[in-house]
Amino acid sequence: MQPVLGEGSDLSEKTINTSIGPPASATENWGFANGGNIGTRIPKLDGPQRISGKVSYVQDITRPRMLHGAILRAGVPSARIVSIDVSAAKLLPGVHAVLTAEDIPLVPFGHGRDNTALKQDFVRCERDELVAVAAEDEVTARKALALVKIELEEIEPILDPFSALEPGARQIHPLHDGNLVLNFDWSGGDISAGEAVSSLVLEDEYHLTWVTHCCLGVSGIIAEFDARGDLLLHSLTQVPFLYRRDLGHIVGLAPECIHIVQPTIGGGFGSKLDIYPYEPIAVFLAKAAGRPVRILFNREEEFIASPTRQPTVARIRAGMDDEGALTFREARFLHDNGGATSWGATTPFVMMQTISSLYRVPHASFHTQAVSTNNPYAGSFRGYGNLQATLAVETNLDRLAAMAARDPLEVRLANAQQAGDISSQGMVFRSCGFKECLRRAGELSSWEGKRKEWGLANPIGASGELRRGIGIASLLHVGGGAKIYRSDGCGTRLSIDHAGKVHLCSGSTEIGQGSETVLAALVADELGVKITDIRVTNDDTRQTPWDVGVHASRTSFIAGNSALKAARQVRTQLLTAASEIVGLPPEQLTLREGGIWDIRTDSAILDLGKLVRELHFSGQHQLVEVQVFYEPPSDYQDERFHGDVSASYAWGVQVVEVEVDMQTGVIQPLRVTSVHDVGRVLNQLGIMGQVEGGVAMGLGYGLTEEMLVRGGILANPTFRDYHLITAPEMPPVQMDFIETDDPEGPRGAKGIGEAPAIPTAAALVNAVAHATGAWINRLPLKPETVLAALSAEGIDSSTLVPPPIRNLAPEKEFPLPVTPSDGAEFISEVM
Amino acid sequence: MQPVLGEGSDLSEKTINTSIGPPASATENWGFANGGNIGTRIPKLDGPQRISGKVSYVQDITRPRMLHGAILRAGVPSARIVSIDVSAAKLLPGVHAVLTAEDIPLVPFGHGRDNTALKQDFVRCERDELVAVAAEDEVTARKALALVKIELEEIEPILDPFSALEPGARQIHPLHDGNLVLNFDWSGGDISAGEAVSSLVLEDEYHLTWVTHCCLGVSGIIAEFDARGDLLLHSLTQVPFLYRRDLGHIVGLAPECIHIVQPTIGGGFGSKLDIYPYEPIAVFLAKAAGRPVRILFNREEEFIASPTRQPTVARIRAGMDDEGALTFREARFLHDNGGATSWGATTPFVMMQTISSLYRVPHASFHTQAVSTNNPYAGSFRGYGNLQATLAVETNLDRLAAMAARDPLEVRLANAQQAGDISSQGMVFRSCGFKECLRRAGELSSWEGKRKEWGLANPIGASGELRRGIGIASLLHVGGGAKIYRSDGCGTRLSIDHAGKVHLCSGSTEIGQGSETVLAALVADELGVKITDIRVTNDDTRQTPWDVGVHASRTSFIAGNSALKAARQVRTQLLTAASEIVGLPPEQLTLREGGIWDIRTDSAILDLGKLVRELHFSGQHQLVEVQVFYEPPSDYQDERFHGDVSASYAWGVQVVEVEVDMQTGVIQPLRVTSVHDVGRVLNQLGIMGQVEGGVAMGLGYGLTEEMLVRGGILANPTFRDYHLITAPEMPPVQMDFIETDDPEGPRGAKGIGEAPAIPTAAALVNAVAHATGAWINRLPLKPETVLAALSAEGIDSSTLVPPPIRNLAPEKEFPLPVTPSDGAEFISEVM
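YS: structure for the whole thing
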């Protein structure tokens, strides 16, 4: 199937050429029979509800007798807490609870067990939570915070990870000796053997800074205890079952006593994978006040107190032989872990997969450390480290190709994996459309012609100040979940009511990614009912069966397989029952158009609702409902990070085309081509949205987004100063999907959630290098950065020949001690 | 088991003597092992939540953008609607929707299909709904109603059913020819054959007026559409699945598109079994305004616009032979159906069972009609007609005994059914403790002594103005559901989580009757877990499996059996799985104290949570969850009302002791003894509450409660003027339970919900007759009624010999034409 997006940015212009499946215009046909929905353009089931403003965000929800919470933060990156006086705040009328660290159990949490809900002795970053208040209304709560008197003794902050690692550096957190929070050390093969057969070796260094998720729905929570002590949380978590386990630990409750209801989530992107201090704070406030408490962030607070993408200094060294084959790859990454440890510290787990397994690399190693500083700290963020790793691998590879005077696309094709390959980390590529992605991306973007016609040698514009460039980058990511917990599975409950309508209750969470629609489509096709006759419940731990959560691009794959498994059981049950009623063998029957059909006569013989009623009201007295659990056939990685961690792997290639103004440094993205091996397209509209959204996020990472952290303080906590790529700025995105029909995937599909964001920045850097001759090793590519890079290379608008390729890494050794890995500890931690 | 309630009215004094089961004081022991909870004093699981005010009544719930609805009612009992001008109301700022009958589909509803949400042409009773408004707040909504101009042309109301039946009477509703709404005609045996062997025949007539449920939580609803057109209702219905079917019909939605969430219900007692106009009105307002709409009644509206108990004129004629055996029973009842037809009209279905089957009566017949008037209309109400029928049967029987100079208790014993009897309606009494109830009630109340020492012949008090009396009455009621719909069953979903905690999801609704606790106790005992480790969900049709609803005293029996069935399946699954893990045969294992125990060594060998985690995380990859449906083995009655309609039948006997002031007519109830065949006591505290509550309700019916409907208008719509029996007025209630261990009942239990309210008024009338010599044939027995009866019989405080028994029925024929029964139609209607 070849859906291709046209060059217009208006969705209506994006006609899709389909070589299989129903025509794109046939949306009125969806809903009937097997195969009717999957692969077509399925509007989001929850779309009308969202568009009409009828969804309930946490901002919309009130609970009886609810109070409003607010948090006072440190506002300085590093200090000793001398005293906190809340006496005046407590006396303010309307205030029901005022909490400091003195008042709550300080159970450490976060991946490094180095965070607490409120801080007791030291401030370690700007956002640190010092006092929390619950009051009748938000204004009173803020007023109460203004009455708190805090005495802080400021301490010189440590603001970069290299300083933090220096001998004698102040230890920021007592838990982390030498400020070392986490250390990963992996190696596969023998680097020196790789070096020995290399004709070219290139060592580059990249500097990647903080960006943040910018969810349009800001953070919020409502905590409420019932009389037996059970906790009801309206929470935006993406991982409700693990969340209640971890939160329960912090607030002293059995996980099963925590009931989580998820309001409509205004964006997740990984930001809601961990517990953050405002969440236990709301619980402690509710406990103290004896009433429900809601905490809502404003936008400034969302910027300051949300997780970030892990800032990284990445050193990569790789070689190529005379044939253009990669010979080895050695990577050392240093992460600024900030003032506390959240999931961001664990992103090397994913980075490593790209270092080890994107392209056939016979010898590879990966050493990385996360180091405490007094900066903001990072969480998980769409791609989970893979954007950083892919930038390093794909830019370095492009430069090796340039040194070897080989075409970047040809080099990639020559080194690409194929189905059947097993990577050095033990990942088994059962389906692999990598080469097809490369070829198709080249074809769609007219790669060959543009590589020749564009570039530094071919100025355009009135005075030759413009150059055009085209760059490419690939990606490898998990596409069938990632087994990092004891179960990577998902439960489904499926029932059919008296009217033949279907209730699908899935453990997986909808965070806007369209899972509700995809799951419903899978079930609708299997049961031969209209997708609009399916109701989905996926937001309430009292109802939904267990699921590990939304992460690792796993929902369509894992929850999809779970839903399919349930639908197939129900299908069998219905056909068997119908067979008895109508006296025909089950294999002569099928489910279609909301009924049982006789295959031989091609006619409807029994309405589905009638069949369900018959089962209920007849002698059988049974309701049609099944509950299943799907566990993917993946493995834990061992303590050496070896194992087939996902049931499937996703591949993709992006080509970015740019126009660069050599005088101003302004980059105009012209077009992005995005081709993905997704196993199979389940929802054309949904997957297009995922790709467009991913490209926008990837472009933002490459071009415009940057948290300006100055002296540990975020200087731009507003959308005016933090520049997201907005709709008018988006270049056209053309896309296609390679359908490799994954053997384990639901209807052959693989995950796509994170993938499209991963290679965009790398392709952009490569395109800018093609246009200007300058390889830029720090993001975002803002005009001043571009101009500085051009200037450093001595390039201006009259230059026509690119300078020679040289190492982007400085001569000095990357200051990263290689110590025994914490890998085993990491694994046991998340399990 | 013999729990006996002491004479104190303080609960703490009510020690219970238990001959089996743990001691009453051992409440700290509940929660462990099989048999640990059932039969003990189990505090309500939802008690703390209710007591602490943490439950959410509909009054506490708001929804985002919610509007407030209000209804304008006719205020006259009979009129033609000339015009309704809502133009000024629509212009009031803050008003979002104003509806009259012109604006909505007038789909007729109610059992007689003679009601609509808003009325178009005619007003047929005071409460009739004419205009509805939705506004930003309740004050604005009321203001808008005040701006409505209504022109009504009043029509002389028809205020009693006899007038309504007179030839030429105005036809109140076009649907009901001759104002006849419903006609039941049943006969078993041959009345004249019965008459032929009678030595005594007595014909009595009773006049029973309106009472109402007086739920402390007034009516309310929140209606809200989502963008796909699905309707979310926060509704107080007792029958969510049938409710959404019927409401869907009115508002034009498939039932399955209606999602019902039940807030905490502040009393049901049958009042929430039907749809009432405010409910579709809220839906139409929500539709018109495009926003959620809440309608809440105030207390006055609750009195005026709630259903009532069916007012009845009951004529009964019965005979007795020389041996004291009942020979025949012939009954004719006429019901004032009021201005519309709700479930009240169908109560003869239950009345008939008492007429036909309370005591062995060889020949019986029952003719009844419900007739339109312009009075309030009746719904279902705890006992569902049985209070009226039992009053007639039991008072008439007592009077036959008096004529025959036989002891009322002896007569009852002589005619009582026994286990194995099949009634003339086909009801099979598989368990029957009727005689034991009679004997035990006599014993507990010291019947024999008091019958002799008290009575009209034995004045007490300073001037002999006081008399004491003791009276008895029995009851027969369904105790195992009543199959009046295609399924009388209940679904249960039961799951166990990683911590070994249990989630019980039952289709049955908690309306304060304590079902949540009983169901949890049944499951806890079966699974050997603490009852507090069970969470119950029973208030949301998107979660709960199908159930026919709370009525017919069926919840403990039907939902209990369903829960037990589920628990037993889970138990088997757990023991089988544990057997594989620990390598012992399943029969050597049991569930106890939250774990798997080895029976032989009497020791715990595996924690339940650990077992569940093992099943999930091991190769099995399964969650522990089952879904079952229990359908009782009962039958529909055929078109002649013959069939074993319930899986079990409950029996009971009450003795009421009174002191009557012969000068003022004031009756002081001294004590009530209530003995019930309940199969088995499941929860001592719960069943005591049911009996006390039922007795209070029965005493109110007999002594104080009365809706003063004057000219079709309710004159006393307040608690000041409508006299409920309050706690300080309650006499001590002593009780005992006969445990016949019903073969089909859950752990042997039968239903008790309605029973205790049924015979109280009859026993009271009989006690007053013992005390005063006067049989009073109209309720309530307020002082002026008592004095009038004494005066009519020529009795005063000096009288010592009661007047002879004479027919309480007037000589004239009961004006009830015997026409073909609508029975078959009734059955098909409810199915």
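YS: worth flagging: The longest helix of chain B spans residues 555-582.
IM: good catch. Also Chain B touches chain A through 50 residues (CB under 8 Å).
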